[in-house]
TrEMBL record, chain A:
The chain crosses the membrane at residues 35-57, 94-115, 136-155, 161-181, 277-300. The gene is pstA. NCBIfam families: 3a0107s02c. It holds the Pfam family BPD_transp_1. It is found in: Cell membrane. It comes from Nocardioides yefusunii. Belongs to the binding-protein-dependent transport system permease family. CysTW subfamily. InterPro entries: MetI-like, MetI-like_sf, Phosphate_PstA. Its main location: membrane. It is a multi-pass membrane protein. Keywords: Cell membrane, Membrane, Transmembrane, Transmembrane helix, Transport. It comes from the Bacteria. Residues 90-296 form the ABC transmembrane type-1 domain. The keyword Transmembrane applies. This is Phosphate transport system permease protein PstA.
From TrEMBL, chain B:
Keywords: Cell membrane, Membrane, Phosphate transport, Transmembrane, Transmembrane helix, Transport. This is Phosphate transport system permease protein. It comes from Nocardioides yefusunii. CDD domains: TM_PBP2. Residues 1-23 are annotated as: Disordered. The chain crosses the membrane at residues 38-63, 83-116, 128-151, 171-193, 214-235, 287-310. It is a multi-pass membrane protein. The keyword Disulfide bond does not apply. Part of the binding-protein-dependent transport system for phosphate; probably responsible for the translocation of the substrate across the membrane. It is found in: Cell membrane; Membrane. NCBIfam families: phosphate_pstC. Residues 10-19 have a biased composition (Low complexity). Residues 92-306 form the ABC transmembrane type-1 domain. Its main location: membrane.
């Protein structure tokens, strides 16, 4: 605030008795009702966060005895629940994530580029695709699992529980997320950047590839990472595809695979408490992966976000 | 004042040397670019293809199912003894109960958080609080399910509150489901609230209202359509969520409306049936697709309502 406006404000305060907090309504927040209202707002804001903290604390305490090296190196075991491990699930989740990224990112980015840079925005087709994407983003994840089942059933014999099948379901699931966030990132690039390039005689595609996309990379990266962190925690579509507990490391796209969320789900129905403790430890690993990816996305957004 | 350059003697008349129509930037073709554009168009059309794929993948086995099982068995309140497990109404009731419990928690909490973020928080506080609330959406549903099963039911419901609930019950499933959809409602409502122009708030404040009155009587009504869309989207999420209700909600077809009893939802039925060993093409296996078709239709209608609300009632300020 400049000195001029500050003195002006002081004059107003001195002559009329109106303070800045009156102007925002803050000064009149002093009756019981509005204080209670504010407390209710605080409560609702912190309710979710408190549940999240309770979840993390409870899981870490329960899982602490099993946060050891065997958790990473051992396969799951029916004979010795005390040393059961999640090696297959951790490796499987990583495989699934990379295969999902390979399928979903190029397709999602291409669709977003078409919709933002090439499509005629007033055409009927554009509107249909637009509404359809919003709808796809809210389709239940089990349904995507069934779609992947139907696709894999086209092969003979139908594959069950392999990397590419799971990745297909997860890619379909996060495709709308990637398209929507990429579109927003592209839309945020100011028109002048495109116009400058077009004025020099570049084609629309040259402009997109050399000017628009590089400027939109931070936004696209953020959205993509958030999409993948959602994929890594999904269990329902994998369950539909018959992804079950296996005791092998995947070495290719057509190998049988398991995933951390599937292992956690299966252990949750085991009566032996040792499996519960092991699952808690596995949840800690899964949450660490997801929170790490979320943190990375936030860092990218804060560090590379441009204000034009 | 000097005359503008276009009227100065000796300068070309406007438009001379330039084509009369503005240049069509898409007219400059290079051989590879047609291919690129075709590929991009194809990618965008994939999303439509996925929808048709879903409809076909779910519908074809569902049609097979209805060839063998009459509609009356499907829309029955309980399974015939010895017959295929086809009755869908208990599953609808289960879905309804968990959804109602979830929304009863998520709507006030999500809306409260949204109001705080949009009307009360400083920009700096909002920058940190919003991602924190959104973290709730990043927790995998299988983790929430585990939490509901081994913490909410035994410790919170049976321990602290002393409720007489089953090991699996709709209270725990619904409440944890509610926590999961708080960010959906909070984030979208916050966008709607923030879109209300400041002039409206200033008008209210100038008349002597405080922040609570301004929020409740001016900002909330102005943002109502956006908030409605957020709630409807939250509803769609709650209906379609699978892992929490499968793990913590139980696997009993139950017509009772009491949330302390276990209920199987539509999604839980799909997940547990798919895990079973029914051969592909059998009636039991196809029952799965009949339920999935119903679920898809329900969520599709809800989503379309939400999209329509946003499109039709979006206020242009």
């Amino acid at each position: 605030m400049s000195i001029a406006t500050r003195t002006a404000r002081d004059t107003v305060e001195a002559t009329t008795g109106i303070t800045a907090s009156d102007l925002t309504g803050r000064g009149r927040d002093r009756n019981v009702k509005s204080v209670l209202f504010l407390v209710a707002l605080w409560f609702s804001l912190f309710f979710g966060v408190v549940v999240l903290i309770a979840l993390i604390v409870d899981t870490v305490i329960k899982g602490a005895p099993r946060l050891d090296a065997e958790l990473f190196t051992n396969y799951h075991s029916k004979i010795s629940p005390d040393t059961t491990g999640f090696r297959a699930g951790i490796l499987g989740s990583i495989w699934l994530m990379f295969a999902t990224a390979l399928l979903a990112i190029p397709l999602g980015m291409a669709a977003a580029i078409y919709l933002e840079e090439f499509a005629n925005k007033r055409s009927r087709l554009h509107r249909v695709i637009d509404v359809n994407l919003q709808n796809l983003a809210a389709v239940p994840s089990v349904i995507y699992g069934m779609l992947a089942v139907a696709v894999l059933a086209l092969f003979d014999p139908p594959f069950k529980g392999i990397v590419i099948g799971g990745a297909l379901a997860l890619a379909l699931l996060i495709l709308p997320v990637i398209i929507i966030t990429t579109r927003e990132a592209i839309r945020a690039v100011p028109q002048e950047i495109r116009q400058g390039s077009l004025a020099l005689g570049a084609t629309v595609w040259q402009t997109t590839w050399r000017n628009t996309l590089p400027s939109a990379v931070p936004g696209i990266a953020t959205g993509t990472i958030l999409g993948l962190s959602r994929a890594i925690g999904e269990a329902a579509p994998l369950l539909m595809l018959g992804v079950a507990m296996v005791r092998t490391d995947p070495t290719g796209l057509f190998d049988k695979v398991t995933a951390l969320p599937i292992q956690i789900y299966n252990f949750s129905s085991e009566p032996n408490e040792a499996y519960q403790i092991a699952s808690s430890a596995a949840i800690v690993i899964l949450l660490a992966m997801i929170l790490g990816m979320n943190a990375l996305a936030i860092v990218i957004r804060n560090k590379f976000q441009k204000s034009w | 004042m000097a005359p503008t350059s276009t009227t100065t003697a000796g300068s070309p008349r406007p438009g001379v040397g330039l084509p009369v129509v503005p240049p069509d930037l898409n007219a400059k073709r290079r051989p590879g670019e047609t291919v690129i554009k075709a590929l991009l168009t194809l990618s965008a059309l994939t999303s439509v293809a996925i929808t048709f794929g879903i409809v076909f993948a779910v519908l074809a086995p569902a049609v097979d199912f209805f060839k063998e099982v009459p509609f009356t068995d499907f829309f029955a309140t309980s399974d015939e003894p010895g017959a295929v497990s086809a009755a869908v109404l208990p599953l609808v009731v289960g879905t309804l109960i968990t959804t109602v419990v979830a929304l009863a928690l998520a709507v006030p909490m999500g809306l409260g958080a949204a109001i705080y973020l949009s009307e009360y928080a400083s920009p700096r506080a909002r920058k940190w609080l919003k991602p924190t609330v959104e973290l709730l959406a990043g927790v995998p549903s299988v983790v929430y399910g585990f939490f509901a099963l081994f913490f909410v039911t035994p410790v919170v419901l049976q321990g602290w509150l002393g409720l007489d609930v089953n090991f699996t019950n709709s209270w725990a499933a619904g409440l944890v489901l509610g926590v999961m959809i708080i960010p959906t409602i909070a984030s979208l409502s916050e966008d709607a609230l923030s879109a209300v122009p400041h002039a409206l708030r200033q008008g209210s404040l100038a008349l002597g209202a405080n922040r609570m009155q301004t929020t409740i009587r001016v900002v909330l009504p102005a943002a109502l359509s956006g908030i409605a869309a957020a709630v409807v989207l939250g509803l769609s999420r709650a209906v379609g969520e699978t892992m929490i209700v499968t793990m913590a909600g139980g696997s009993v077809k139950n017509m009772s409306l009491d949330p302390s009893e276990p209920h199987m939802t539509m999604t839980a039925f799909i997940a547990t049936t798919a895990k079973g060993e029914n051969p592909v093409g059998s009636v039991e296996y196809n029952a799965l697709f009949a339920v999935a078709a119903l679920l898809f239709v329900i969520t599709f209608v809800i989503n379309m309502v939400s999209i329509a609300i946003v499109r039709r009632f979006r206020q242009e300020y």
